């Protein structure tokens, strides 16, 4: 029997959140955390969480599992359970809508703020824009982000200033476009980022790197943005 | 009813996957008042799981490539019930749509000359099947769907598309004339039910793989658009045609791209034999998906399956080397380690054919307009209703879709629907407004669930439905078993009609969403079952023991399932492409 | 872009650069003082004040003081914006910090040149 403790909150019935205990029979299988939630939901249909692809590419089921952010669908119990106990909480630092579902509004707003789309003021050719494999390689480790928010909600700087600090996820995408040889808005993008909050609130804590379920490295991208800002301004 | 809030749009697009976002982008650019209504944040849609690529004759790998060759492959792959005017449109417009994606920023992998990387996929040929294997699938490593979906979402942000994220469409609203004039939808975050009025309603709701117990599909793929259209009385086309992808990870169902075989991987049985050489001597592991899936099941049934129970085969990739795997198939390496506990660089991946794609759907023309047939069997247009992507049956995939054609389908026809709706709106659309009773009709089932007092639980009924479909409507089908399945489904339908929703709360009530989804699964499953029973032949993905041959005399036709009387009719396949000679049906070998 | 008027260099980049350059100056100054103390074990007042009587040492010390002031302001400003969310309290504390830094700076200059 696996002992699972889950953060519960229903705004319509609960005045305050609480932790609820469940006993789950895993039949000795090394299930994913998402499977455990599904088993619990079969018995208690009120349990709310997001899920979609169940294979770690859609970014729906980011949550805090035994203290560490990650995706429930690709986190096996063997990796996360300590002393037969599993504690599930919503992603920290964002308002809770219900149970494990958080309001991602602030997170998405920061993503939108970095203008996450290619900008190129030259007329498009009749075929594709050419890009050398070396230039394309620069996007590896950047474009794979799934917007699960595990990184930004593990970042103390984002907790303190979610309205002003872009956060690791948004900055990774900011660099994805700065690094793209096809993008011509580098100067404008940089000028949007040079204030003391957007990028510079990063203190290099590297929680983002520790939790990213896709193995990406936002801290490195932030360092690269700083280098570009410096090169641009001096 | 009168106190229900309503929203008005020129066009409402239900579904935020690839086709919905592509249609929305077109409409947002036109300045029409458009909204995308999606039950998940758009980048969580199932398009994100597409791996291998988007097939299109952009003449990068082969400068002499020709969209007509692609069209030939598509028509042949679909076992000749793909509409040839639609296949022609998709293959000829494709390059434009792919280049647009690249201009939007999609991070395609590249060849040394800077052009988009293309890899070989199943069923691809040069020179109308005579020039050997082609490499026509444009790829961003093995994360093409992810890259495509994010690019489309990003460009919708750029063009200020309105999003109703985490809203769930419940049912279509029809006016007294039978035109679709909007839908009833629920804001999942609050539980508020809203009347969404629109001059054009686009079903871009994707597939419904969750009718099967084992599927590569996301948990959200519950055929919501198909369910809504069926309840509104509209017919569905070719619903018996379900693609079983050869390589779903054994046990987990997670997809392993055909690109693995495109890059040189192959399937082996328990003796280590590359068995596809026996079934498809020329194309081998890159034959059509239906052919490969059947061959795998044959191997397993004849006792040459792998593992303790001999119930799967192996996909061998280790000979490709870590560098190729890391560069071209990094996502597969990750998925295999996570879900099969196998490092493809060292050991083979256990795989088994797994439900993957719905070739059928809402019958449409190339502009995305939904079609129904009148009493004489003639096509007529449904006012106000459009469909694109997997939810639609244009039909470009016929009885079996080729790998990489789904992403092309959704961008080409999402775009086409957007372009057409813009011009239709410009010309002026004037439908009768829905009456209160029209709206009530669309509210019926959500009201039913909300008032349910007791009955069986949703997860149990869903599992039963998935079991029936898995057992009776899988890779191989047969009359008696399907009869049994149809009977079981009929009985299940009445039980679902009395099932219970215990949680009546408003805020983010996922139990209510799952209950509403179950209704849709039921609709799709029954349409599939009845159409499958009716088509007495074997064609493409529909393979029957009792009718092992293709029957072009009786069944070179689309099937058309009518929900009102649960009868199956036939619709002519289009054999009149505009700029090329039609492809005559031939015996399909690889 | 997030706009603000109370940070030191008016841009995150210059703040960041100031923080790093001032840190280097402070590190060098500290290292110098430590080494000086190590190599002069029986240090008496005359030697110590002799060191500070030299112009280069006064300029070096002034540079370190100014660096310390800038470094402290950038750092403490950041801390106040992280933890003090009500604007009134934050501005009040920031004013006090500026005042304190100013006093310490003037005092330092006085000590260096006042002897």
The gist of it:
The complex is a heterotrimer of chains A (234), B (590) and C (115). With 234 residues, chain A is of the alpha+beta class. Helix content of chain A is 31%, strand content 14%.
Written account of the structure:
The complex is a heterotrimer of chains A (234), B (590) and C (115). Chain A has nine helices and seven strands, in the order ββαββαβββααααααα. In chain A, a hairpin with a 2-residue loop joins strand 6 and strand 7 (101-102). By secondary structure, chain A is of the alpha+beta class. Chain A is elongated and about 60 Å long. The mean pLDDT of chain A is 97. A five-stranded mixed sheet of chain A has the order 2-1-5-3-4, with helices on one face. In chain A, strands 6-7 form a two-stranded antiparallel ribbon. Chain A has helices at 33-43, 77-80, 105-113, 133-137, 156-160, 167-178, 186-191, 207-211, 218-233, and strands at 2-8, 18-24, 62-65, 68-71, 85-89, 96-98, 101-102. The termini of chain A are far apart. Chain B has 590 residues and is of the alpha/beta class. In chain B, strand 4 and strand 5 (133-138) form a beta hairpin. In chain B, helix 2 (67-77) crosses helix 3, helix 13 packs parallel to helix 15 (510-534) and helix 14 packs antiparallel against helix 15 (510-534). Chain B is globular, with a radius of gyration of 23 Å. By secondary structure, chain C is mainly alpha-helical. In chain C, 14% of the residues are buried. Chain C is built from four helices and no strands. At the A-B interface, helix 4 of A face helix 3, helix 4, helix 10, helix 13 and helix 15 of B.
Features:
heterotrimer; B: about 600 residues; alpha/beta; 8-stranded mixed sheet; 4-stranded antiparallel sheet; C: about 120 residues; mainly alpha; about 0% strand
Percent helix range of chain A: 25-40%
SSE series of chain C: HHHH
Structural class of chain A: alpha+beta
What is the number of E strands of chain A?
A: 7
Number of helices of chain A: 9
Tell me about the biggest sheet of chain C? none
Strand % of chain C is under 5%
Q: Kindly, what is the distance between the CA atoms of the first and last residues of chain C, rounded to a whole number of angstroms?
A: 48 Å
Q: How would you classify the helix and strand content of chain C by structural class?
A: mainly alpha
Radius of gyration of chain A: 20 Å
Count every beta strand of chain C, where a strand is a DSSP E run of 2 or more residues: 0
Return the average pLDDT of chain A rounded to an integer.
97
Taking pLDDT < 50 over at least 5 consecutive residues as the criterion, the unreliable ranges of chain C are: none
Radius of gyration of chain C, in angstroms, nearest whole number:
17 Å
Number of helices of chain C: 4
